[in-house]
Design goal:
This protein has eight helices and no strands. By secondary structure, it is mainly α.
Amino acid sequence: MGLPPEGDDEDRLILEQIQKGQKELFVLLVKRYERSVFSMGVSFFRNADDASDFTQDVFLKVYRSLDGFEGRSRFSTWLYRIAYNTALNNAARKKEYLSLAEEEIVPDGDTPERKALRGELRAAVLEAVEDLPDRYRVCVDLFFFYERSYQEIEVITGFPVNTVKSHVFRAKKILREKLRSVFEAAGE
């Protein structure tokens, strides 16, 4: 799903104004995408300090490259491509990637039994996702957690669209097999 269509239109209007000299409007784009870029940073670097540095680095690169944005893709796709490449370059030194599946969503008013069960299921899912090859995890994260299309993932990662589809399909198959017994035992 990503941003609603009006988000794309708003991005285009903001970018037009920035390119006409209203550089102070860049803060609007930062506010809109900062959390997503930070989450990608956490996925790659596993700590808030490095993710924060990464986020600043990405937005600095984006700001410096604004004149190079030609509008052939959505601004968010272009931004995520820069973020992904920056993360890959920095993470290559650390060799770590943490899936966005590790972000916990806790419903209000849950019973202690449901919290315990959800914790066990979550741990099993995290373990299964952790075992996926990095190329599968990145595609799964971008598809399910960042809600990017296969074509956008192709632009962001550089993987051909059929490879992206294959990675998502294979990851889902692996996860389904690994988690089948866990979910059956939980009655889900």
